[in-house]
Structure formats: C-alpha cells, structure tokens
Amino acid sequence: MTPHTGKLYLALIVSVLLSCVAAWIIAGRYRWRMLQLMRAPHTGGSAAPVAEAAPDGPPPLPVSLADNRRAGIRLTMLLIVMSCLLAATSTCVWWVLSLPGEPMAPKRVAVVALLHLWPVVPALALMGRWSRKRFLGALLLWCGVTFVVLLWRQIERRPLEALAAMVSDMGLSLVLLSLVFLGSATRAIAPWLVTPAAVLVSSMLVGLDVLTYMANSASPVLTYLISPLEWLPGWGGVFLVFVLFALLPLALMWWPVRMLGRALGHAYSRKRLSDLLAVFTGIWIFALTDRALTLSTTAGAWAFAMYLPLLWIPMVMWPAAKWRPRSERPPTLLVLRVFQQDAQARSLFDHVVERWRLSGNTVMIAGTDLADRTLDADDIFQFLDGKLAQRFIVSPADVARRIDAFDMSADIDGRYRVNECYCHDTTWQDALQALVRYSDVVLMDLRGFQAHNAGCRYELATLARASRKLRVVVLTDGRTDRTVAQEAVAPGWQDRFTWIEVSHFNASRLREVLAHLFA
Questions:
Q1: pLDDT by residue (tens digit) across 305-323?
Q2: I need a surface site. Which of 169, 307, 333, 422 has the fewest CB within 10 A?
Q3: What is the average pLDDT across 175-199?
C-alpha cells in the first residue's frame, strides 16, 4: 500500500466514523428539540373543530394485498437486476485494470462477478427492514454459496486462498456499511453526512500535505509562520502550526459543505433522490471505493473508473419509473399509536408501514418515537439550519397549509413518502381532525393502551364520529384496556373498526393486518 492509498483509506474510515458520531448527536438533539417544541404553547386561539369534508379529487384507486405484493416483487427484482449489472460491469473494469492484456474468460469473469455481487444482500435487507439476525443469516448463506463456487472453480483446491479473496473483497466495506446502515439513527442520518464529512476530512489532509511540502522545500512562508512562535517550547510551536494547517482548510470548506448539505436536501425534496435509492447507492459506493483504493496502487487515477458502473442506477431507475403503473390518487393511510412506546412503534413501522409505502401514502402526527424512521435529508439539513420550529403547526389556520405541502407522489423507486404534522400539545387535535378527513384507512396501534391515555381516547372518539366512509384497523394486545376503548367508540360508527390481537408480529399476523388494510 502506497502512502497516497493509505491516506485515502484513512479519509474513508474517518469520514464514516465522523458521520456516525454526528448522526447519534443529531438524532439526540433532534428528539430533544422536538419535545421542547411540542410542549411549547402556541399564541393562537383554542383548538377549534375542523369541518368534516371529503378530500377533493377522485376517490382512491382500490389496491389489494396482491397488488402490494406485486409492487414489492417488482422493486426487489429491480434492485437485483441493478446489482447484477453493477457487479458484472465492475468485474470487467477490475479485470482490465488489474490484469491488463489478459483476455476475459467468461467463466472466470462470472465467478469474480458472483464475488462482487455481495452488496445485493444488505441492499435487500435494508429495503425489507430485516432484523439483524435475519440479515446475518442471509449474509452467511451467501458467503457459504460463494465459497463453494470459488473452490469448485479453482484448479487446485485452496480453501484459505478462496477465503482470503472473500475477506479482501467484502471485509472493510461490510464493516463500514454496517456502521452506517445497521443502526437506527445512523441509517436515517449518516448516509447524508458521509459525503460532506469526506470533503472536510480530505481538506484537512490536503492542508497537512501542504505543510509537509513546505517543510521539505524549506519554504520561507513556513519560516515566517513559525518565527513568532519561537518563544514556545519546541513542540509547542510545531503543534500550533499543525493545528493551523489542519483547521484552516476546515474553516475554508465549511461554507461549501453547508451548501452541499442544502443541495442534498433540496434534491431529496425535489424527488431527484429517495431514501431507498440513497441507501442502495451508498452500499455500492462502499464496495466500489474499496476496490478502487486497492487498485490505485497499480492503476493510479484510472482506478476511479471503478465508479463508472454506478451509471447503471439512473439508467435503470428512470425508464423503470416511466413504465411503472401509476394511480391518480393512491390510498392514504393514517397511522396513530400510543406514544412513549418507542420499540413497539418502530416494530409497527418496520413490519406494516414499510409494506404500505409500496402502494400508498402515509400520514401521521410526528413524534420522537419514530424520528429515526421518518427523518429524511430535507428534515436533517433543515434542522441543522435551525428551521425545525417552522414546521410546527402553531394555530388551527396552519393545518391546511401544512397538509397542502404534503408530498403525495411516488418516488423514483415507486414507494411513497411518509408525511407528518408537527404539532404542539395544543394543536394536535386540530391536525388529527384534518388528517382523518384526508385519509382513506386508519391503522391504530393500541397495544399497551390504558385508561390514562387520554389522547388515544380522543382519537378513538374522533374516528368513530367521522362522517365520511372510513376503515379503521386497531391493534391490541394483552395490556390493552378493551373496555375503555369500546366505551370511547360507542357513540359513533362501531362497525368501521376491526380489532386484531397482535402480541408480536409474525408472518400470519402481518398478512392479517395487511389484508384488512388493503380490503
């Protein structure tokens, strides 16, 4: 490994670590700020009932569970096809750069392409919100199959050589993407911070390289900078000069990096990016970066041709988006839950809401429990700019403005976004009434509900009294006080409620819940 390659590896690793640490800090500060704003009273009048009316436009296009399943299969196959194209193309580029002049043997290229295809496993795992145990099992199965194929294609059976090839190709990339994507906060925030962090770290390394060059060439500029520090101990002056050359580039690049972050948030809000596409691209960038840095010792700058296969992503996604069947108004799901049940709310989101997003929109009242599931690029950089308070509904008149700003069209990957109303403790009832009027089906998680959950009682009564046609699927468990819940809906339309016992999600319970949502 050359010193130049070592610096690039250092920049990559430090950028990932910095983005992960920053993600944890931002997630904590975001939750704290949300709680602070939610508890802040607004200066407007008291909560006023919102008039019941059906949303404008045609009724939603009926979507069945089979339609939802087909949408999931289409997206899965699309990711697999793109992964195969990326693996095959990156193998060809790698072959040309690492084995110049050697003809490509189709069978050998196919084996290397299989080795390079491993990012498809974390891509599918993150799309489907797999558990860590399921992801690890799938990855081990993939490694086992690949190991057997490598041994089969070797003329002489060398298991250690095959294992070393797999570790060399997967090891560092898998560690880095695990840091970024397998944590709740890091998955939501870190992918958007890695590029800005890489710019800052690279600028600092460039500054230190400039210092090294000036020292080696006995630059008079360096002598001029050190001369005022001669009164310090020998190490003190050198230390301050190092700090100056490390921090000055950071200060110079800080504003461009902020502009880069805003550009990412703007691109996301304009639907040029999606959260799934960012995750998929990030996984492949980690894999290709490792190969590019490995090749840079022999191929020089040509090694960065390893990034050319990424062009397959827009080349496949854009035509696929045009061919995808469209709905003039997809159904809208309102998600309600018992607050302060964070693990339960995340499980609901991972198992049900992520499936629903393949077929329709999701709206909810924002809370800290699902912040690491619903945070997107626009939210992150708006928060870093100190503009989170502007998203909150401070009076009943703000409800219509916030709902009009909802993004209800599909992303380029075919999934729909989650839209939230940020509410103070004194305005959430106004937002709830508007969201009920706006939605076609409601999923209410009453697991753990008790009589003291006054907000849930109000939500049940509001749903029961809604005059428009509405379906409500309610999840309960052994802790749910069904008597109090039934009393809350008794004055209204009780037959619109479907009650499902869900102590924990398994395949049969998930199918039952989804079947009722898509009925």
A1: 999 999 999 999 988 887 7
A2: 307
A3: 91
Q: How many CB atoms lie within 10 A of CB 273?
A: 22
Helix (H) or strand (E) holding 432: helix 428-438
Task: Name the strand (E) or helix (H) holding 443.
Answer: strand 441-445
Q: By C-alpha distance, which of 317, 408, 327 is closest to 361?
A: 408
Give the three-class secondary structure for 442: strand
CB 449 within 8 A of CB 338: yes
pLDDT in tens, 195-226: 999 999 988 888 887 777 666 666 676 566 56
The number of beta carbons lying within 10 Å of the beta carbon of residue 222 is 18
* Distance (Å, whole) CA 155 – CA 178: 34
SS3 helix, strand, coil % of the chain, rounded to 5? Answer: 65, 5, 25
pLDDT digits (tens, 9 = 90+) for 17-68: 999 999 999 999 999 999 999 887 655 544 444 444 445 556 777 888 999 9
Q: State the CB neighbour count (10 A cutoff) for residue 475.
A: 24
Tell me what pLDDT residue 231 has: 47
Greatest distance between any 2 Cα atoms in the chain? 87
Beta bridge partners of 444: 336, 474
**CA nearest 457: which of 474, 477, 439, 471?**
474
Q: What is the pLDDT of residues 330-366, one digit of tens each?
A: 999 999 999 878 888 888 999 999 999 999 999 999 9
Number of Cβ within a 10 Å radius of residue 333: 25
Tokens 């109090």 sit at which residue?
A: 484
**Which run of H or E residues covers position 332?**
strand 332-337
What DSSP designation does 417 have?
P
Amino acid at position 228, single letter: P
Domains and CATH numbers, the chain: 3-22+69-192+275-321 (no CATH), 330-517 (3.40.50)
Per DSSP, what are the bridge partners of residue 361? 332
